[in-house]
Amino acid sequence: MWTSASSLFLGTTLPLPCGRPKGRVLLRPRMSSSSSATDPLTTVGRLLWGRSLPPGPLVCAVRFSWSAAWHFMMRQLAPSDPAGSYSRPSGAFRSVPDRYLRNPSTARLHLYVGLPCPWAHRTLIVRALRNLEPQIPVSVAAPGSDGSWEFPGGRGIDGGDLIPGPDRANGRRTLREVYGMRRGGYDGRATVPMLWDVERREVVCNESYDIIEFFNSAAFDGSSGLDLSPPELKREIEEWNRVIYSNVNNGVYRCGFAQSQEAYDVAVNELFTALDMLESHLSTSRYLCGDVLTLADVCLFTTLIRFDLVYNVLFKCTKKKLLECPNLHGYTRDIYQIPKVAETCNLEAIMDGYYHTLFPLNPGNIRPVMPSVCENQSLSEPHNRESLSSNGKHRQIHVSE
Ligand SMILES: N[C@@H](CCC(=O)N[C@@H](CS)C(=O)NCC(=O)O)C(=O)O
Protein backbone atom coordinates (compact mmCIF):
# COMPACT_ATOMS: atom_id res chain seq x y z
CA MET A 1 0.00 0.00 0.00
CA TRP A 2 2.92 2.32 0.31
CA THR A 3 3.64 2.55 -3.36
CA SER A 4 1.26 5.51 -3.76
CA ALA A 5 2.81 7.39 -0.84
CA SER A 6 6.08 7.05 -2.66
CA SER A 7 4.94 9.64 -5.22
CA LEU A 8 6.04 12.26 -2.71
CA PHE A 9 9.55 11.00 -3.31
CA LEU A 10 9.57 10.80 -7.09
CA GLY A 11 12.99 11.23 -8.54
CA THR A 12 14.67 9.54 -5.61
CA THR A 13 15.62 5.93 -5.04
CA LEU A 14 13.61 4.19 -2.37
CA PRO A 15 12.63 0.70 -1.33
CA LEU A 16 9.15 -0.41 -2.46
CA PRO A 17 7.33 -2.66 0.00
CA CYS A 18 4.21 -4.70 -0.87
CA GLY A 19 5.81 -7.66 -2.63
CA ARG A 20 7.79 -5.66 -5.18
CA PRO A 21 11.24 -7.03 -6.16
CA LYS A 22 13.90 -6.63 -3.49
CA GLY A 23 16.47 -3.91 -3.78
CA ARG A 24 16.18 -0.29 -4.71
CA VAL A 25 14.15 0.89 -7.67
CA LEU A 26 14.79 4.05 -9.65
CA LEU A 27 11.57 5.96 -10.20
CA ARG A 28 11.38 8.25 -13.19
CA PRO A 29 11.03 11.87 -12.10
CA ARG A 30 7.76 13.50 -13.20
CA MET A 31 8.55 16.93 -11.79
CA SER A 32 11.71 18.85 -12.44
CA SER A 33 14.23 18.56 -9.60
CA SER A 34 13.91 22.28 -8.88
CA SER A 35 10.12 22.04 -8.39
CA SER A 36 10.40 19.01 -6.11
CA ALA A 37 13.15 20.76 -4.10
CA THR A 38 10.81 23.69 -3.41
CA ASP A 39 7.75 21.56 -2.71
CA PRO A 40 7.12 22.37 0.99
CA LEU A 41 5.69 18.93 1.77
CA THR A 42 8.77 17.21 0.36
CA THR A 43 11.08 19.58 2.23
CA VAL A 44 9.30 19.02 5.56
CA GLY A 45 9.29 15.26 5.00
CA ARG A 46 13.03 15.23 4.26
CA LEU A 47 13.79 17.30 7.34
CA LEU A 48 11.73 15.02 9.55
CA TRP A 49 12.57 11.55 8.31
CA GLY A 50 15.12 11.89 5.54
CA ARG A 51 14.44 9.97 2.37
CA SER A 52 12.65 6.98 3.85
CA LEU A 53 8.92 6.54 4.34
CA PRO A 54 7.08 8.41 7.15
CA PRO A 55 7.43 6.64 10.51
CA GLY A 56 4.75 4.16 11.62
CA PRO A 57 3.20 6.27 14.42
CA LEU A 58 2.69 9.16 12.01
CA VAL A 59 1.02 6.84 9.51
CA CYS A 60 -1.28 5.49 12.24
CA ALA A 61 -2.17 9.00 13.44
CA VAL A 62 -2.96 10.23 9.93
CA ARG A 63 -4.92 7.11 9.18
CA PHE A 64 -6.98 7.48 12.36
CA SER A 65 -7.75 11.15 11.82
CA TRP A 66 -8.53 10.71 8.12
CA SER A 67 -10.90 7.87 8.94
CA ALA A 68 -12.67 9.97 11.61
CA ALA A 69 -12.96 12.92 9.22
CA TRP A 70 -14.22 10.61 6.46
CA HIS A 71 -16.99 9.18 8.67
CA PHE A 72 -17.94 12.68 9.74
CA MET A 73 -18.17 13.94 6.13
CA MET A 74 -19.99 10.85 4.91
CA ARG A 75 -22.65 11.36 7.58
CA GLN A 76 -23.29 14.85 6.17
CA LEU A 77 -23.23 13.65 2.55
CA ALA A 78 -25.21 10.46 3.00
CA PRO A 79 -27.45 9.88 6.00
CA SER A 80 -27.16 6.27 7.12
CA ASP A 81 -28.89 3.87 9.49
CA PRO A 82 -27.03 2.46 12.53
CA ALA A 83 -25.59 -0.38 10.40
CA GLY A 84 -23.97 2.11 8.03
CA SER A 85 -26.44 1.63 5.15
CA TYR A 86 -27.31 4.71 3.15
CA SER A 87 -30.92 5.84 3.52
CA ARG A 88 -31.98 8.38 0.93
CA PRO A 89 -34.15 11.20 2.31
CA SER A 90 -37.37 11.65 0.33
CA GLY A 91 -38.22 14.89 -1.49
CA ALA A 92 -40.13 17.56 0.45
CA PHE A 93 -42.55 18.34 -2.41
CA ARG A 94 -44.05 15.12 -3.65
CA SER A 95 -47.00 14.50 -6.01
CA VAL A 96 -47.92 17.29 -8.42
CA PRO A 97 -51.09 19.12 -7.23
CA ASP A 98 -54.30 18.41 -9.15
CA ARG A 99 -54.69 21.91 -10.58
CA TYR A 100 -51.61 21.34 -12.78
CA LEU A 101 -52.99 18.03 -14.02
CA ARG A 102 -56.30 19.60 -15.03
CA ASN A 103 -54.90 22.51 -17.07
CA PRO A 104 -51.16 21.99 -17.48
CA SER A 105 -50.67 24.54 -20.25
CA THR A 106 -52.19 27.43 -18.31
CA ALA A 107 -49.39 27.40 -15.71
CA ARG A 108 -45.93 28.82 -16.44
CA LEU A 109 -43.74 25.94 -15.40
CA HIS A 110 -39.94 25.83 -15.28
CA LEU A 111 -37.71 22.82 -14.75
CA TYR A 112 -34.42 22.95 -12.79
CA VAL A 113 -31.93 20.14 -13.44
CA GLY A 114 -28.26 19.23 -13.05
CA LEU A 115 -26.68 17.10 -15.78
CA PRO A 116 -24.77 14.59 -13.59
CA CYS A 117 -27.92 13.71 -11.62
CA PRO A 118 -29.67 10.48 -12.70
CA TRP A 119 -32.96 11.59 -11.11
CA ALA A 120 -32.97 14.88 -13.03
CA HIS A 121 -31.97 13.02 -16.19
CA ARG A 122 -35.27 11.10 -16.06
CA THR A 123 -37.20 14.36 -16.34
CA LEU A 124 -35.11 15.57 -19.31
CA ILE A 125 -35.77 12.35 -21.21
CA VAL A 126 -39.53 12.34 -20.69
CA ARG A 127 -39.70 16.08 -21.43
CA ALA A 128 -37.90 15.44 -24.74
CA LEU A 129 -39.87 12.34 -25.75
CA ARG A 130 -43.16 14.09 -25.05
CA ASN A 131 -42.06 17.22 -26.99
CA LEU A 132 -42.52 19.43 -23.95
CA GLU A 133 -39.50 21.68 -24.56
CA PRO A 134 -41.59 24.70 -25.64
CA GLN A 135 -43.97 24.28 -22.70
CA ILE A 136 -41.38 23.64 -20.02
CA PRO A 137 -38.16 25.64 -20.33
CA VAL A 138 -35.21 24.35 -18.37
CA SER A 139 -32.35 25.86 -16.35
CA VAL A 140 -29.25 23.72 -15.93
CA ALA A 141 -27.34 24.11 -12.66
CA ALA A 142 -23.80 22.87 -12.04
CA PRO A 143 -22.34 21.47 -8.83
CA GLY A 144 -20.45 24.13 -6.86
CA SER A 145 -17.31 23.42 -4.85
CA ASP A 146 -19.37 22.53 -1.75
CA GLY A 147 -21.62 20.21 -3.78
CA SER A 148 -24.67 22.49 -3.84
CA TRP A 149 -26.22 23.55 -7.16
CA GLU A 150 -25.17 26.87 -8.72
CA PHE A 151 -25.94 28.70 -11.97
CA PRO A 152 -22.67 29.59 -13.66
CA GLY A 153 -23.98 32.23 -16.10
CA GLY A 154 -23.36 32.10 -19.86
CA ARG A 155 -26.09 31.00 -22.26
CA GLY A 156 -27.08 27.61 -20.91
CA ILE A 157 -28.42 26.09 -24.12
CA ASP A 158 -25.81 25.75 -26.85
CA GLY A 159 -27.26 24.82 -30.25
CA GLY A 160 -29.65 22.33 -28.66
CA ASP A 161 -27.02 20.92 -26.27
CA LEU A 162 -27.92 21.17 -22.63
CA ILE A 163 -25.09 22.83 -20.76
CA PRO A 164 -24.99 24.59 -17.37
CA GLY A 165 -25.99 28.24 -17.56
CA PRO A 166 -27.98 30.98 -15.86
CA ASP A 167 -31.22 30.63 -13.96
CA ARG A 168 -33.55 31.52 -16.82
CA ALA A 169 -36.68 31.80 -14.69
CA ASN A 170 -35.59 33.77 -11.64
CA GLY A 171 -32.07 35.04 -12.33
CA ARG A 172 -30.77 33.60 -9.03
CA ARG A 173 -27.20 32.47 -8.39
CA THR A 174 -27.94 29.22 -6.58
CA LEU A 175 -30.76 26.69 -6.53
CA ARG A 176 -31.03 27.20 -2.76
CA GLU A 177 -31.97 30.84 -3.44
CA VAL A 178 -34.73 29.71 -5.81
CA TYR A 179 -36.18 27.33 -3.22
CA GLY A 180 -35.94 30.18 -0.72
CA MET A 181 -38.20 32.38 -2.90
CA ARG A 182 -41.29 30.30 -2.17
CA ARG A 183 -43.84 31.66 0.25
CA GLY A 184 -42.92 30.39 3.68
CA GLY A 185 -39.25 29.95 2.71
CA TYR A 186 -37.43 26.63 2.75
CA ASP A 187 -34.59 25.19 4.76
CA GLY A 188 -34.50 21.60 3.44
CA ARG A 189 -32.27 20.03 0.76
CA ALA A 190 -32.20 22.07 -2.45
CA THR A 191 -32.29 19.13 -4.85
CA VAL A 192 -32.73 18.65 -8.58
CA PRO A 193 -34.95 17.93 -10.37
CA MET A 194 -37.28 20.68 -9.25
CA LEU A 195 -40.39 21.86 -11.08
CA TRP A 196 -41.21 25.49 -10.38
CA ASP A 197 -44.36 27.55 -10.93
CA VAL A 198 -43.07 30.89 -12.20
CA GLU A 199 -46.21 32.94 -11.49
CA ARG A 200 -47.09 31.51 -8.10
CA ARG A 201 -43.40 31.43 -7.10
CA GLU A 202 -43.85 27.94 -5.72
CA VAL A 203 -42.17 24.54 -5.90
CA VAL A 204 -44.59 22.28 -7.77
CA CYS A 205 -42.66 19.05 -7.14
CA ASN A 206 -39.11 17.88 -6.45
CA GLU A 207 -39.58 14.12 -6.70
CA SER A 208 -38.37 12.83 -10.05
CA TYR A 209 -40.84 9.99 -10.48
CA ASP A 210 -43.83 12.23 -9.74
CA ILE A 211 -42.50 14.77 -12.26
CA ILE A 212 -42.09 12.20 -15.03
CA GLU A 213 -45.54 10.75 -14.39
CA PHE A 214 -46.92 14.28 -14.68
CA PHE A 215 -44.98 15.01 -17.89
CA ASN A 216 -46.23 11.74 -19.34
CA SER A 217 -49.90 12.02 -18.45
CA ALA A 218 -50.76 15.73 -18.50
CA ALA A 219 -52.36 16.95 -21.73
CA PHE A 220 -49.94 19.77 -22.54
CA ASP A 221 -50.64 21.67 -25.77
CA GLY A 222 -48.42 20.26 -28.52
CA SER A 223 -47.22 17.23 -26.55
CA SER A 224 -46.47 14.06 -28.51
CA GLY A 225 -48.93 11.20 -28.37
CA LEU A 226 -46.34 8.93 -26.79
CA ASP A 227 -47.61 7.20 -23.63
CA LEU A 228 -44.84 5.80 -21.44
CA SER A 229 -47.28 4.44 -18.90
CA PRO A 230 -50.24 2.86 -20.71
CA PRO A 231 -53.02 1.77 -18.32
CA GLU A 232 -52.66 -1.93 -19.18
CA LEU A 233 -48.97 -1.87 -18.18
CA LYS A 234 -49.24 0.25 -15.03
CA ARG A 235 -49.01 -2.69 -12.60
CA GLU A 236 -46.07 -4.21 -14.42
CA ILE A 237 -44.29 -0.84 -14.49
CA GLU A 238 -44.82 -0.44 -10.74
CA GLU A 239 -43.40 -3.90 -10.07
CA TRP A 240 -40.29 -3.15 -12.12
CA ASN A 241 -39.90 0.21 -10.40
CA ARG A 242 -39.96 -1.43 -6.99
CA VAL A 243 -37.13 -3.78 -7.95
CA ILE A 244 -35.12 -1.20 -9.86
CA TYR A 245 -35.39 1.70 -7.41
CA SER A 246 -34.07 0.01 -4.30
CA ASN A 247 -31.59 -2.40 -5.89
CA VAL A 248 -30.30 -0.47 -8.89
CA ASN A 249 -31.12 3.29 -8.94
CA ASN A 250 -30.61 3.72 -5.23
CA GLY A 251 -28.63 0.47 -5.08
CA VAL A 252 -25.53 2.03 -6.65
CA TYR A 253 -25.72 4.85 -4.08
CA ARG A 254 -26.09 2.27 -1.29
CA CYS A 255 -22.79 0.76 -2.51
CA GLY A 256 -20.97 4.08 -2.91
CA PHE A 257 -22.24 5.68 0.28
CA ALA A 258 -22.01 2.59 2.52
CA GLN A 259 -20.26 3.44 5.76
CA SER A 260 -19.43 -0.09 6.84
CA GLN A 261 -18.15 -3.21 5.08
CA GLU A 262 -21.35 -5.07 6.02
CA ALA A 263 -23.59 -2.38 4.53
CA TYR A 264 -21.54 -2.40 1.32
CA ASP A 265 -21.62 -6.21 1.08
CA VAL A 266 -25.41 -6.28 1.31
CA ALA A 267 -25.86 -3.44 -1.21
CA VAL A 268 -23.43 -4.80 -3.80
CA ASN A 269 -24.93 -8.26 -3.59
CA GLU A 270 -28.47 -6.93 -4.08
CA LEU A 271 -27.33 -4.71 -6.96
CA PHE A 272 -25.69 -7.50 -8.94
CA THR A 273 -28.45 -10.01 -8.19
CA ALA A 274 -30.89 -7.51 -9.70
CA LEU A 275 -28.62 -6.78 -12.66
CA ASP A 276 -28.24 -10.53 -13.36
CA MET A 277 -32.01 -10.92 -13.31
CA LEU A 278 -32.43 -7.92 -15.64
CA GLU A 279 -29.73 -9.25 -17.97
CA SER A 280 -31.62 -12.50 -18.27
CA HIS A 281 -35.02 -10.81 -18.74
CA LEU A 282 -33.67 -8.52 -21.46
CA SER A 283 -32.32 -11.46 -23.43
CA THR A 284 -35.85 -12.15 -24.67
CA SER A 285 -37.62 -8.84 -24.13
CA ARG A 286 -36.68 -5.66 -25.97
CA TYR A 287 -37.74 -3.41 -23.08
CA LEU A 288 -38.77 -4.20 -19.52
CA CYS A 289 -42.47 -4.51 -20.41
CA GLY A 290 -42.05 -6.11 -23.84
CA ASP A 291 -42.06 -4.07 -27.06
CA VAL A 292 -43.10 -0.86 -25.39
CA LEU A 293 -40.74 1.68 -23.85
CA THR A 294 -42.10 2.76 -20.45
CA LEU A 295 -41.23 5.00 -17.52
CA ALA A 296 -39.55 1.97 -15.89
CA ASP A 297 -37.07 1.84 -18.81
CA VAL A 298 -36.34 5.54 -18.47
CA CYS A 299 -35.55 5.03 -14.78
CA LEU A 300 -33.29 2.03 -15.43
CA PHE A 301 -31.53 3.75 -18.34
CA THR A 302 -30.33 6.78 -16.35
CA THR A 303 -28.47 4.49 -13.95
CA LEU A 304 -27.09 2.19 -16.67
CA ILE A 305 -25.68 5.04 -18.77
CA ARG A 306 -23.65 6.14 -15.71
CA PHE A 307 -22.58 2.64 -14.71
CA ASP A 308 -19.19 2.20 -16.39
CA LEU A 309 -18.57 5.97 -16.35
CA VAL A 310 -18.79 6.39 -12.58
CA TYR A 311 -20.54 3.75 -10.47
CA ASN A 312 -18.24 0.89 -11.43
CA VAL A 313 -15.20 2.80 -10.17
CA LEU A 314 -16.26 5.57 -7.78
CA PHE A 315 -19.11 3.67 -6.08
CA LYS A 316 -17.21 0.35 -5.99
CA CYS A 317 -19.82 -1.47 -8.12
CA THR A 318 -16.96 -3.61 -9.31
CA LYS A 319 -18.30 -7.12 -9.71
CA LYS A 320 -18.97 -6.52 -13.40
CA LYS A 321 -18.91 -3.68 -15.87
CA LEU A 322 -22.04 -3.00 -17.87
CA LEU A 323 -19.99 -3.90 -20.91
CA GLU A 324 -19.77 -7.47 -19.58
CA CYS A 325 -23.58 -7.74 -19.69
CA PRO A 326 -24.39 -7.94 -23.42
CA ASN A 327 -28.16 -7.59 -23.06
CA LEU A 328 -28.05 -4.70 -20.61
CA HIS A 329 -25.39 -3.00 -22.72
CA GLY A 330 -27.39 -3.48 -25.94
CA TYR A 331 -30.52 -2.26 -24.16
CA THR A 332 -28.68 0.89 -23.00
CA ARG A 333 -27.51 1.56 -26.59
CA ASP A 334 -31.04 0.90 -27.87
CA ILE A 335 -32.51 3.59 -25.60
CA TYR A 336 -29.57 5.96 -26.19
CA GLN A 337 -30.30 5.78 -29.93
CA ILE A 338 -33.98 6.71 -29.61
CA PRO A 339 -34.29 10.15 -31.24
CA LYS A 340 -33.63 12.99 -28.74
CA VAL A 341 -32.32 10.77 -25.93
CA ALA A 342 -28.57 11.17 -26.68
CA GLU A 343 -28.97 14.97 -26.45
CA THR A 344 -30.00 14.58 -22.81
CA CYS A 345 -26.82 12.62 -21.95
CA ASN A 346 -23.84 14.85 -21.23
CA LEU A 347 -21.18 12.23 -20.55
CA GLU A 348 -18.43 14.73 -19.66
CA ALA A 349 -20.69 16.55 -17.21
CA ILE A 350 -21.60 13.23 -15.59
CA MET A 351 -17.94 12.35 -15.00
CA ASP A 352 -17.01 15.85 -13.82
CA GLY A 353 -19.99 16.04 -11.51
CA TYR A 354 -19.38 12.79 -9.68
CA TYR A 355 -15.57 12.77 -9.51
CA HIS A 356 -15.20 16.43 -8.61
CA THR A 357 -18.15 16.85 -6.28
CA LEU A 358 -18.20 13.79 -4.06
CA PHE A 359 -15.08 14.85 -2.22
CA PRO A 360 -15.11 12.16 0.53
CA LEU A 361 -15.15 9.46 -2.17
CA ASN A 362 -12.43 11.09 -4.26
CA PRO A 363 -10.36 13.36 -2.03
CA GLY A 364 -7.52 13.72 -4.54
CA ASN A 365 -10.07 15.22 -6.99
CA ILE A 366 -8.52 13.38 -9.95
CA ARG A 367 -11.01 12.59 -12.71
CA PRO A 368 -10.27 9.34 -14.51
CA VAL A 369 -10.22 9.27 -18.29
CA MET A 370 -13.52 8.44 -19.98
CA PRO A 371 -13.68 4.72 -20.83
CA SER A 372 -13.73 4.50 -24.62
CA VAL A 373 -16.70 2.09 -24.53
CA CYS A 374 -18.76 4.83 -22.87
CA GLU A 375 -18.19 7.42 -25.57
CA ASN A 376 -20.92 8.57 -27.93
CA GLN A 377 -19.37 6.63 -30.80
CA SER A 378 -19.58 3.28 -28.98
CA LEU A 379 -23.05 4.00 -27.68
CA SER A 380 -24.14 4.66 -31.27
CA GLU A 381 -23.04 1.22 -32.51
CA PRO A 382 -25.81 -1.14 -33.69
CA HIS A 383 -27.65 -2.93 -30.88
CA ASN A 384 -29.58 -5.42 -33.01
CA ARG A 385 -32.43 -5.55 -30.57
CA GLU A 386 -35.15 -4.85 -33.17
CA SER A 387 -35.43 -8.60 -33.68
CA LEU A 388 -36.73 -8.94 -30.11
CA SER A 389 -39.77 -6.81 -30.93
CA SER A 390 -42.68 -8.90 -32.11
CA ASN A 391 -43.43 -6.40 -34.89
CA GLY A 392 -39.77 -6.10 -35.87
CA LYS A 393 -39.79 -2.32 -35.56
CA HIS A 394 -40.55 -0.02 -32.69
CA ARG A 395 -43.93 1.44 -33.59
CA GLN A 396 -44.41 3.31 -30.33
CA ILE A 397 -41.31 5.49 -30.78
CA HIS A 398 -42.05 6.13 -34.44
CA VAL A 399 -45.29 7.82 -33.33
CA SER A 400 -43.26 10.62 -31.78
CA GLU A 401 -40.61 11.02 -34.45
N1 LIG B 1 -35.86 11.96 -4.46
C1 LIG B 1 -35.25 12.83 -5.35
C2 LIG B 1 -33.72 12.71 -5.24
C3 LIG B 1 -33.05 13.86 -5.91
C4 LIG B 1 -31.60 14.00 -5.46
O1 LIG B 1 -31.13 13.37 -4.51
N2 LIG B 1 -30.86 14.87 -6.19
C5 LIG B 1 -29.49 15.14 -5.84
C6 LIG B 1 -28.60 15.15 -7.07
S1 LIG B 1 -28.41 13.55 -7.78
C7 LIG B 1 -29.37 16.53 -5.25
O2 LIG B 1 -29.87 17.49 -5.83
N3 LIG B 1 -28.67 16.66 -4.13
C8 LIG B 1 -28.40 17.94 -3.53
C9 LIG B 1 -28.55 17.89 -2.02
O3 LIG B 1 -28.85 16.84 -1.47
O4 LIG B 1 -28.35 18.95 -1.41
C10 LIG B 1 -35.73 12.53 -6.74
O5 LIG B 1 -35.80 11.36 -7.17
O6 LIG B 1 -36.05 13.47 -7.43
UniProtKB/TrEMBL annotation:
UniProt domain GST C-terminal: residue ranges:
230-372
Bias (Basic residues): 392-401
Which sequence ranges are marked TM in the entry? Answer: none
List the GO terms this entry assigns under cellular component, sorted alphabetically.
cytoplasm
Please list the GO terms describing molecular function: glutathione transferase activity
**SUPFAM superfamilies attached here?**
GST C-terminal domain-like (SSF47616), Thioredoxin-like (SSF52833)
Where are stretches of biased composition, namely Polar residues? 377-391
Question: By its UniProt entry, which InterPro entries does this protein fall under?
Answer: Glutathione-S-Trfase_C-like, Glutathione-S-Trfase_C_sf, Glutathione_S-Trfase, Glutathione_S-Trfase_N, GST_Omega-like_C, GST_Omega/GSH, Thioredoxin-like_sf
Residue segments, region Disordered: 377-401
Q: This chain belongs to which protein, by name?
A: Uncharacterized protein LOC105055760
Q: Which organism is it from?
A: Elaeis guineensis var. tenera
